[in-house]
Structures are given as structure tokens and as C-alpha cells.
Amino acid sequence: MPVRPVDHGIFAASGAGAARAGYFGGGQISGGTRQTKVEKFAFPDETRTALSTGLAVATNSLAAMANWGTAGYFAGGYDAGAATDAVDKFAFADDSRSTLGTGLSADTYIPTGMANSGTAGYIGGGTGGAAYFTTVDKFAFSDDSRTTLGTGLSAATGGAGGMANSGTAGYFAGGSSYPNYYTTVDKFAFPGDGRSTLGTGLSVGRDGLTGMANSGTAGYYGGGYKSGGPTQSVVDKFAFSDDSRTVLGTGLSSARNFQGGAANSGVAGYYAGGSGYETTIDKFAFSDDSRTTLGTGLASGTGYLAGMANQV
């Protein structure tokens, strides 16, 4: 059966001005209640605050992307029982929210996002409920205008993972279109957006995985659900120098899918929440890929959320 949102399964005060921080937004808590909350984790001390203004509408199974130093975006998802095309924009200067006049090209849930910071963000795949999409929508950060790439994903998928080596290429990995679960990693070269498919894909075909990246060095895909189960704790690492894949010796602290991911390039990446309605935030130090778990996690156990970060 198709993956449905209900089935699988922070930091200085807001308004303090742009600073390195991760943002985790939307999702649902145990019992299925969708969320508008956006929690912010300041990277210097990993303290958590909740933004005074959250998403415009309670939404789960959404995607996120960010233009470092300027704004982050939460896009699509499941809103009041139906897929949505809405895109909420949070200005990093004061964490204020606006909603783009032009949303996604279709109502979409379980899409994924990545960005070429300073230039454009991309939202790919997902489903409207009746069919899965190959579509990749591109939002120019200069004016938030949307175009749709002539070449989309190599397969129609939902629940893929996205991450990017800003300035060089972005990657969409895995996902499913029931009963198929993919190991495929599609690479989109910046700025021309030409697509190729990596010779080495994921170590396990799965959906509900989450990407984050140490831009300039490597990208990571954590968790997910493989055909027939079980839910995964695996973290695959792709070196940007040659796109080679290794599997971290230490994976997530528990098996889960549909987490939020955020990264502080050069320092550490974070995986937050996920199926099972976890509050846990796992931190992977980029110096040696060692994992710790933050003392302060999400305010409540949340799955099907999205994450993005201001890295400058």
C-alpha cells in the first residue's frame, strides 16, 4: 500500500537576528495531531526555543530547504487531511514568516528538499495521493519564483532524502512507489541542473530517510523504512570528492524514519524526532562522524517533520 503520513510509523530566542541555527518544523505527535510549531536550535550552544510564529497551517510529511544567511522554507505536506502546495518562508534576520504567492506545482506530501545556497532551492518527488511524482520544482532565491525542471527524478518516488554540496550539486536518494523501494541516488549538477545517477546507490533501498550535508565534504542519509521492514538506523555517507559511499560504524541511536535533518557545515549534523514520535536529537560530529545525543531534544515527540539550517 502507498506510504501515508500516519502509517510510518533550538536555541537562542527568536527575533535575535540571523545566526547559525537549525530549524525543525511541522510534523505530527502521537495520536496524529499535526503541528504548526517550528523549533530553533542555536548551533553555538544547542539551546532550544520555539518560534513565536510557526507554520501557517498545521502540516506533516513536508520538505524543507534553506538559503543560508537569508531564509529557510517549509514546503508541501499533509494539511487538514489533504496534500498541500503551500510554501512558508522564514526570514533568518528575525524568524518572521511569510507564505509564497506561488507554491509547489502540485499539492504534494512526502516530498524532499535541498538547496544551492545563494541561488535556488529544489523540492522533488512526493505524492498527491493517487500517484507518485518525478517532478522537481526549483525556486530562485532572488525573487522566490518557481520553475519546474525539464528533467525530474529518474523514478516517481515519495519519501526520498535530499541534501546538497552547495555550489556543486544536489542529491535525491531512495524513496518508494509501492511496492518498489529504491537505492537510487540522483545527482543534479549546479547551476545547469543536469541529472545523472550515481553508480553506487544507498546501502539499503528505503523511504522515509533523511539527508543532511557537510557542504564541501560529504552528505549523509540516515534512517528510513525498507520493503517489508524493519525501520533502519543505518547512516550512509557520500564523499563529495568522488561520490563514493561508506556506511558509518555508528548509526542512529534508534531505528526510525521521517525525521528532520539539519547541518552546521564544518562542525556537525543533526537528526531530530521521527517515527515512534521521538524527542531525540542525534548529533554527528563531522570531524570523526562520532554520535552523541543532545541533552535537550524536541519539546514533544514528533514524527514526519522537516529540518533545515542557517549555516552562516
Walkthrough of the structure:
- The protein is mainly beta.
- The chain has a single domain, classed as Kelch-type beta propeller (Neuraminidase, 6 Propeller).
- It contains no helices and 31 strands.
- A four-stranded antiparallel β-sheet has the order 4-3-1-31, with no helix packed on it. A four-stranded antiparallel β-sheet has the order 6-7-10-11, with no helix packed on it.
- A hairpin with a 3-residue loop joins strand 16 and strand 17.
- The protein is globular and about 45 Å long.
CA-atom Rg in angstroms: 17 Å
Structural domain count: 1
Please state how the strands of the largest beta sheet are arranged side by side: 4-3-1-31
Average pLDDT value?
94
Find the CATH superfamily.
Kelch-type beta propeller
CATH class: Mainly Beta
- Largest sheet descriptor: 4 strands, antiparallel
Low-confidence stretches: 1-16
CATH topology: Neuraminidase
Broad shape: globular
Based on the coordinates given, report the CATH architecture. 6 Propeller
**Number of helix segments?**
0
Structural class: mainly beta
- Helix proportion range: under 10%
